């Protein structure tokens, strides 16, 4: 863990359920099956039902940095390194084309972004299914999420359902406005968004934290209530 936070970040005691406002009321349709689909520039598309089965598991403590400037320290994630999944599952079973160095990531709630393959293969990037000693909650991305601590939170796609390999020239779809998604979003370089400087976006985003966190928390509480009323059968 770093003693200092990256530029422009402030420590938060709460790990907010968070994202672009339109995802606040969306939840995964399959919250308990860690299944993944591999598509795009591959020789064989694959649908894996228990995507992490048989792979070496790791535990990692890392800080988490949202682009809107809040950071939480010391989260203990468990799962499988993306690099392990890539080498042991993607390459042998889906055979991506050598030029497919861009990866689009899709969540069950409709969120999507992309990462450079090289960034995904870093040692600290995980496909995580547990957090702080417990199975990942719906709030934090069940059944499976990406965790890429060196990149802003929006790259750590929750409820991950599809991984699509692409040629870099083809680009990728983003959930929100394009300027809000930096292709790499490295926290140390303050790559908060495209075109606008990172330090400037600090001041644009900071005022939105409170209302966004509260909208996400309210939606989660309402979902809980709904489950209570229908005896667990609600989605
Ligand atoms: N599927 C999905 N993934 C997502 C989001 C989202 O709304 N939906 N929000 C992103 C943003 S902006 C952040 S900061 C983190 C928040 O993770 P948390 O809700 O577990 O705290 O998830 C990221 N991944
Ligand atoms: Mo975020």
Entry keywords:
235 residues; alpha+beta; Sulfite Oxidase, Chain A, domain 2; six-stranded mixed beta sheet; five-stranded mixed beta sheet; 4 helices; 25% strand; globular; binds ligand MTE; binds molybdenum atom
In short:
The protein is α+β, with helices and mostly antiparallel strands and 235 residues long. It has helices spanning 82-94, 117-120, 198-205, 209-229, and strands spanning 10-11, 36-40, 46-48, 58-65, 70-81, 102-107, 112-116, 126-131, 134-135, 145-147, 160-166.
Number of helices: 4
- Mean pLDDT equals 95
**CATH topology (fold) name:** Sulfite Oxidase, Chain A, domain 2
Main sheet overview:
6 strands, mixed
* Level-1 CATH class name: Alpha Beta
- Total domains: 1
Query: Which secondary-structure class do the elements indicate?
Result: alpha+beta
Order of helices and strands: EEEEEHEEHEEEEHH
Bound molecules: ligand MTE, molybdenum atom
In terms of DSSP E residues, the strand content is 25-35%
Distance from N terminus to C terminus (CA atoms, Å) equals: 37 Å
Proper CATH architecture: Alpha-Beta Complex
Low-confidence stretches: none
What is the share of helical residues? 10-25%
Q: What is the 3D form?
A: globular
Query: How many β strands by DSSP?
Result: 11
What integer value in Å does the Rg equal? 17 Å
Task: Write structural notes for this entry.
The chain is α+β, with helices and mostly antiparallel strands and 235 residues long. It has a single domain, classed as Sulfite Oxidase, Chain A, domain 2, CATH 3.90.420. The chain has four helices and eleven strands; from the N terminus they run E-E-E-E-E-H-E-E-H-E-E-E-E-H-H. The protein has helices spanning 82-94, 117-120, 198-205, 209-229, and strands at residues 10-11, 36-40, 46-48, 58-65, 70-81, 102-107, 112-116, 126-131, 134-135, 145-147, 160-166. Strands 1, 4, 5, 8, 9 and 10 form a six-stranded mixed sheet that branches. A hairpin with a 4-residue loop joins strand 4 and strand 5 (70-81). It is globular and about 45 Å long. The mean pLDDT is 95. Bound molecules: the ligand Nc1nc2c(c(=O)[nH]1)N[C@H]1C(S)=C(S)[C@@H](COP(=O)(O)O)O[C@H]1N2 and molybdenum atom (MO). Molybdenum atom (MO) binds next to loops. The site of ligand MTE has 19 residues, from loops.
